[in-house]
Design brief:
Structural class: alpha/beta
Largest sheet: 8 strands, mixed
CATH class of the largest domain: Alpha Beta
CATH superfamily of the largest domain: NAD(P)-binding Rossmann-like Domain
Number of strands: 14
Number of domains: 2
Helix content: 25-40%
Radius of gyration: 21 Å
Bound molecules: (2R)-2,3-dihydroxypropanoic acid
Distance between the termini: 26 Å
CATH topology of the largest domain: Rossmann fold
Strand order of the largest sheet: 8-9-7-6-10-11-12-13
Number of helices: 11
CATH architecture of the largest domain: 3-Layer(aba) Sandwich
Order of helices and strands: EHEHEEHEHHEHEEEHEHEHEHEHE
Length: 322
């Protein structure tokens, strides 16, 4: 199989124990042409979010690979319909990254409200002159109303943390929300339009699909409360970044905490120099524990497939919920 990126050592060892592995030594994202070639020359591909495994990878008579095992839960970078048409199995790694990604969403909420990025930058720049009662006053997170878009595993884990640790009332919207219902202390509303004006913090946890592209744009940002904060640990595509920059500049919302971007690793320049925005480099699942668990889950999927069993995390030609 071809493994596109370097993986935690224990995962690479486990892969080599079971398979003949070709590993891309440069540890850089492969081009679409290289990925298509990999699909012709190998029985399996182990890829990551940085590899765009688009339709041409699955088309044509020379495609040899029968399985694409993604290291990660989101699969918007893989042409699932083309894979399904070609009969290529696609797997992902759900569950194991839920807690760490939820933790990071909370970290961003805290960092934006408590101005942690600004404070850290000032200290390192040597401009901190010492404690004073009015220095860098932020806003309390505890008790603010949290809105969750997408109530899958990660959305639910964020809601639990917000409720238990920060006494935050939680309102949620998903495409499958039962209209105006309540479950586990979370109130579900029937539409995104209904959710937006109700919340102080809006946290995104839906998958990137054609339907969710720019789900949060100028119109939605205008419906949010003026003091509200946007948190995105899902996928950059879900937010129209230009509209977000415009809304921040106009003071229509109070800030944003982002871990994902429309054109990673490029970040909209209008975000980079804003003090009311906290920017992280796609770190949601980036703990040693989770990255190892993600790798082992990919190994399990591959082992099951080549044993002739159903891989535990097989996707069926449609986007998965994170
Ligand atoms: C995921 O698992 O989807 C993370 O964003 C890394 O790809």
């Amino acid at each position: 199989m071809l493994v596109t990126r370097r993986l935690p050592a224990a995962v690479e060892t486990a892969l080599r124990e079971s398979f003949e592995v070709t590993q891309e030594p440069s540890d850089r994202p492969l081009t679409e042409r290289e990925l298509a070639a990999a699909m012709r020359d190998h029985d399996a591909l182990l890829c990551t979010v940085t590899d765009r495994v688009m339709a041409p990878c699955f088309e044509g008579p020379g495609v040899r690979a029968r399985i694409v095992a993604n290291f990660g839960v989101g699969v918007n970078h893989i042409a699932l319909d083309a894979a399904a048409r070609a009969g290529v199995v696609v797997t992902n790694t759900p569950d194991v990254l839920t807690d760490d990604t939820a933790d990071l969403a909370i970290l961003l909420m805290l960092a934006v409200h408590r101005r942690a990025g600004e404070g850290e930058r000032a200290l390192r720049a040597g401009t901190w002159t010492g404690w004073r009662p009015t220095h860098l006053l932020g806003r309390r997170l505890t008790g603010r109303t949290l809105g969750i878009v997408g109530f899958g595993r990660i959305g639910r884990a964020v809601a639990e943390r917000a409720q238990r640790a920060f006494a935050m009332p939680v309102v949620a919207w998903t495409r499958t929300s039962p209209p105006e219902s309540e479950r586990d202390g979370v109130r579900f509303v029937a539409s995104l339009d209904a959710l937006l004006p109700e919340v102080d913090v809006l946290s995104l946890h839906c998958p990137a699909t054609p339907e969710t592209r720019h789900l949060i744009g100028a119109r939605e940002l205008a419906r949010m409360r003026p003091g509200a904060v946007l948190i995105n640990t899902a996928r950059g595509d879900v937010v129209d970044e230009q509209a977000l920059v415009d809304a921040l500049r106009a003071g229509r919302i109070a800030g944003a905490g982002l871990d994902v971007y429309e054109e990673e690793p490029v970040v909209h320049p209008g975000l980079v120099d804003r003090d009311d925005v906290v920017l992280l480099p796609h770190l949601g699942s980036a703990t040693r524990e989770t990255r190892e668990a993600m790798g082992m889950r990919a190994v399990e999927n591959l082992r099951a497939f080549f044993r002739g069993d159903a891989p535990p995390d097989r996707l069926l030609g449609a986007a998965t919920r994170p």
